[in-house]
């Protein structure tokens, strides 16, 4: 899975840690359950945001590159993208990791919270207690199917971006972006017309801007280019339809892919496997 090629996942795969389960959640997100014992692990410049939950024990696990108390069941840690850390494990414990791609987190903030991507900032957190967030991550680890997982994932990201002590999604003013009403209008049009070509000129006309200024304003508002945003929405819809068991030719048509092979190429690029293989693993 391309999602789980994240640096933390790779580092744990080379340590004493044993992978218990792994799931591709779509759109670049991944979930993995691990156990480890008698080990020392260093993570270097993580390529995803990583949210960690200790699910069993952890009282003999501690972070050694900064002062921190020992872990405990239910302890949450957050390693933002680009962070490094070192951990000493002197006993057996189990934990869950959620791998969160930065671009998707920023797009979620723009789409769901109507906040500019530049305002999103996640702190480093070590062994925090947050029963709501821990409960959501536990539910996500136990959820069956893409659709059930997505609902929990939305709640989790919203909490992560808005709860005290976690993300700060509202601190920076919007500069050079689209008006909130214009962005809502564009998002609605994209969702309604995902089965169509969605030309840049048409989207720019909806915003009342030239193509050049529209691309700059759209990126300032969402963190993605218009093309990348449309591709992301096509893939999210395709994942949902594939999970429901829809024929791939119908999925391709409903999501604006030229043909079945076009969908397969895009899906393989996003997930590392063909749609049929991904669906079989749900």
Automatic annotation (TrEMBL):
Lineage: superkingdom: Bacteria
Record keywords, A-Z: DNA-binding, Transcription, Transcription regulation
One GO MF term attached to the UniProt entry: DNA-binding transcription factor activity
Tagged with keyword Membrane: no
Domain HTH araC/xylS-type: 184-281
PROSITE patterns: HTH_ARAC_FAMILY_1 (PS00041), HTH_ARAC_FAMILY_2 (PS01124)
Name recorded for this polypeptide: AraC family transcriptional regulator
Organism taxonomic ancestry: Bacteria, Pseudomonadati, Pseudomonadota, Alphaproteobacteria, Rhodobacterales
């Amino acid at each position: 899975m391309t999602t789980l090629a994240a640096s933390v996942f790779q580092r744990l795969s080379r340590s004493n840690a044993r992978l218990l389960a792994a799931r591709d959640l779509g759109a670049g997100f991944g979930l993995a359950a691990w156990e480890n014992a008698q080990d020392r692990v260093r993570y270097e410049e993580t390529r995803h945001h990583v949210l960690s939950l200790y699910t069993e024990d952890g009282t003999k696990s501690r972070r050694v590159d900064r002062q921190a108390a020992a872990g405990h069941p239910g302890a949450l840690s957050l390693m933002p993208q680009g962070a490094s850390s070192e951990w000493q494990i002197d006993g057996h414990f189990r934990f869950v990791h959620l791998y969160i791609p930065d671009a998707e987190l920023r797009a979620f903030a723009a789409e769901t919270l109507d906040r500019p991507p530049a305002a999103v900032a996640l702190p480093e957190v070590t062994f925090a207690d947050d029963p709501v967030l821990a409960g959501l991550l536990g539910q996500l680890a136990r959820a069956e199917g893409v659709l059930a997982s997505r609902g929990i994932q939305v709640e989790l990201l919203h909490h992560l971006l808005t709860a005290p002590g976690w993300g700060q999604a509202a601190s920076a003013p919007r500069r050079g972006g689209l008006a909130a009403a214009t962005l809502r209008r564009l998002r609605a049009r994209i969702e309604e017309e995902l089965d169509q070509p969605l030309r840049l000129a048409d989207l720019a006309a909806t915003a009342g801007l030239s193509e050049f200024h529209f691309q700059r304003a759209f990126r300032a508002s969402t963190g993605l280019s218009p093309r990348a945003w449309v591709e992301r929405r096509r893939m999210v819809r395709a994942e949902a339809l594939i999970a429901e068991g829809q024929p791939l030719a119908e999925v391709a048509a409903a999501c604006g892919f030229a043909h079945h092979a076009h969908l397969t190429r895009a899906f393989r690029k996003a997930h590392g496997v063909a749609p049929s293989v991904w669906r079989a693993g749900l």
